[in-house]
Amino acid sequence: MSARTHPVPEQFDDPVQQREAATLGMWAFLATEVLFFGVLFAGYTLCRVMFPEAFAEGSRHTDMLLGTIETAVLLTSSCAVALSVREVQLGGRRAATAMLALTAALGIAFLVMHGFEYYAEYREGLIPAIRYTQQGVYARGMEIFYCLYYFITLFHSLHVTVGVLLLGVMAWRTWHRAFDQDYHTPLELTALYWHLVDIVWIFVYPLIYLVGRSG
Amino acid sequence: MSTVERVPPPRSYLEEGYGLRSWLTTHDHKRIAILYALGITFFFFLGGLAAALVRLELVTPAGDLMSAETYNKAFTFHGVVMVWFFLIPSIPATLGNFLLPLMIGARDVAFPRLNLFSWYLYVGGGVFTLLCLLLGGVDTGWTFYTPFSTLFSTSHVLLAVVGVFIVGFSSIFTGLNFIVTIHTLRAPGMTWFRLPLFVWSMYAVALVMVLATPVLAMTLSLIALERLFGVGIFDPALGGDPVLFQHFFWFYSHPAVYIMILPAMGVVSELITAGARRRIFGYRFMVYAIIGIAVVGFLVWGHHMFVAGQSMYASIVFSILSFIIAVPSAIKVFNWTATLYRGDIGFDAPMLYALGFVGLFMLGGLTGLFLAATALDVNLTDTYFVVAHFHYIMVGGAVMAYLGGIHFWWPKITGRMYSEAWARFAAILMFFGFNLTFFPQYILGYEGMPRRYHEYLPQFQVWNVLSSAGATILGAAYLLPLFYLAWSLRHGARAGPNPWDARGLEWQTASPPPPHNFEQTPTVTEGPYAYR
Ligand SMILES: [Cu+2]
Q1: What value, to the nearest 5°, has the Cα angle with vertex A190 and ends A187 and A192?
Q2: How far is CA B367 from CA B211, B326, B331, B376, B390, in A?
Q3: What is the pTM of this model?
Q4: Ligand 1: distance of its center to the CA of B329 in Å?
């Protein structure tokens, strides 16, 4: 299916209108996503004000090295997905598919690294409600820190997972010539979504791994 | 207003298929609207049944009909069902779904499949809520306040939370669909300032749905996790903050009030202009008022928390903002009144509902100002005054407008006219029944009767008996349309394309409309409400 054979659903006059609608729909969806994460960030902010030392202590227990690598991986993947859109616009089907596959692979790498982090935290007894063995004055505040840490990172990882699946589908469709210079809206929208996943992480990274660490 | 070529009427959307399958897999916004209408009518009467139990218990001061626990479950179920399964989807998902594409000259909404999916989400959420009821119900109140909902309640909080969570996505997707539809699918010549006010109200409400509902969904997830795992950020025993829950909850739930009332305002604007044969007075002001209400509505949530331990300065700001939001609401009331001035007013049933709306909304709005005043609110918090106030807005306002709209567009939706005499009778009965039910509650609240108790002091009995008596009348008035509207489906006179001689694109196509709304996409050449 290419742009010429791609049928325009009956509610639209032409492909341009369809594309506008799809893009606006995606942006509206991303707005809701910002609010979903916004609740978690607001909760984080308030609890941090209530327990500043415990949050700093909690931050020190996180794996900054892995967190930094994860950030780099995710940023690189965002670049790759942007390149895949560019390649499709230029007609480079092979390169576009490769870029999409790379993006998905980096997303999977991110998830795997996060899995290692979770495992290390499990052994250290840092997972509230499952295995939490911290003692001392900061134990309670740190438990809240780790609650938020899990809410935020698990919710984010859920988005990464959805994104990886989408990217896989897009790679498959690109390879099978579903897109060309004129028609590649689904690919663009997937890229938009992936950028949001990336941007959210850009906020998560300093809040969880960096803030208060050196204090 | 615009030009539509007259061709012999094609098959209507109702004749496109008759089997259950053709309905359950439809992508037609008009059919989906009817699916929604069936759902919300079911839940309306279910929620009404719970209200009837509450009013029955309150006939006597002693708690003799049911235990305190059962009573708590009754009013919680009433609240949850009426808010999320009736009021929020009521006008947007039924009238909005049906009319929005027609009013802007489109063939459908932008994402028809998503539209159908929204309905399934609505049904899915409803199933969980019914399951919750069947297994014994939930007793937290519709507000799910922590720490009661997370730590202490032994009822089925999780099921209720899951139900509301799912139905929340239904309204997010409906909102998203409306925003995109209005932006991209307007017919040639349909500029933003030629949109009927109903469409503007749908636009504003869609924005609120999309931007507020995620906060509710996330907050409910946090409650569910806290209940399941015993860890979280709302639990004071762990050092969390239950007031934070209230902030999140009302950040959604105050704008939710506008999800209910903005569409009602849109409907009433259509009803009054058509019923008085007048152009709307101050069209642009009406548009700005709609947008103003939607925007400022996001900034007033703290007025639910004046006694919850929030800082005094925050309370002052929220109080002032709550007064400010009364201004656009008042503009709307003034403009409706000015529209009526020297109008050629007909007292058909839709107009009766619209006039009832204006009066009741005004009373509800003015008592809202009492509650926005920090000092007075300390006395009135959690009394029946609050209950009366929001029922004037939601039942007197939103439900009256919803029914007015159903009557007004009934001939368009079904192609039939209902019995005008019965419809007028029901509208008037409803108005009296409503006031008899809820006005006594202002007095009760002012005298200090707290809400949410199944017992009360004997001196309050007279007003409570009056209120319960009114509820009986109100219930009868709500049942009446079920019968005469159903009757009209078979026996009503055929309605022409435009029985009210109204303006607006929806009246320029057949009744009921063909599957793709217009035989030829209309071209719009003038603004809305081209009366005199
Ligand atoms: Cu409010």
Answers
A1: 110
A2: 27, 11, 17, 11, 9
A3: 0.94
A4: 14
B112-157: pLDDT as tens digits: 999 999 999 999 999 999 999 999 999 999 999 988 888 888 889 9
B496: phi > 0 → left, psi -120 to 50 → alpha, else beta; which? beta
The secondary structure of residue B297, as a DSSP letter, is G
- Alpha-carbon separation of residue B350 from A36, B418, B428, B485 (angstroms): 40, 12, 11, 14
Instruction: Give Cα B278 to chain centroid, integer Å.
Output: 26
Q: Is residue B515 part of a domain?
A: no
Residue A186: list chain B partners with CB under 8 A. Answer: none
Task: Report the distance separating Cα B412 and Cα B501, nearest Å.
Answer: 12
Mean pLDDT by 10 residues, chain B (532 residues): 51 88 94 96 96 96 92 96 96 96 95 97 97 93 90 90 96 97 95 96 97 96 90 82 93 95 96 94 95 95 91 94 95 95 92 96 95 92 95 95 97 95 97 97 95 94 97 96 95 92 92 91 90 82
Q: Tokens at residue B230, please?
A: 């015993």
Query: How many whole angstroms separate alpha carbon B225 and alpha carbon B148?
Result: 14
Instruction: Return the residue matching tokens 């009832």.
Output: B356
The total of structural domains in chain B comes to: 1
CB neighbour burial string for A175-195, b if at least 16 within 10 angstroms, e if fewer: beebbbeebbbbbbbbbbbbb
Helix intervals (H) in B230-241: none
User: What's the domain range around B423?
Assistant: 25-508
The reply to whether B516 falls in a domain is no
CATH number for the domain harbouring residue B343: 1.20.210.10
Taking the Cβ of residue A124 and every Cβ of chain B, the question of whether any pair is shorter than 8 Å is answered with no
DSSP letters for B244-278: HHHHHHHHHHHHHHHHHHHHHHHHHHHHHHHHHT-
With cut-offs at 50, 70 and 90, classify the pLDDT of residue A1. very low
B68 Cα to the center of ligand 1, angstroms:
27
pLDDT in tens, B475-511: 999 999 999 999 999 999 999 899 999 999 999 999 8
The alpha carbon of B106 and the centre of ligand 1 are apart by a number of angstroms equal to 35
CB distance B283 to B417 below 8 Å: no
**No. of H helices and E strands in chain A?**
6, 2
B237 to chain A: closest CA residue: A140
CATH superfamily entry for domain A11-213: Cytochrome c oxidase, subunit III, four-helix bundle (1.20.120.80)
**Interatomic CA distance for residues B255 and B261, integer angstroms:** 10
In a domain, B11, yes or no: no
User: Which of helix, strand or coil describes residue B187?
Assistant: coil
In-domain check, residue B513:
no
User: Which residue of A21, A36, A147 is in closest CB contact with B232?
Assistant: A147
Placement of tokens 């006008």 in the chain: B91
Q: What is the DSSP letter of B186?
A: P
Handedness of CA B523, B525, B527, B529 (dihedral sign): negative
* Of B255, B261, B388, the residue nearest B380 (C-alpha): B388
Distance CA B157, CA B138 (A): 6
Q: Check pLDDT > 90 for residue A137.
A: no
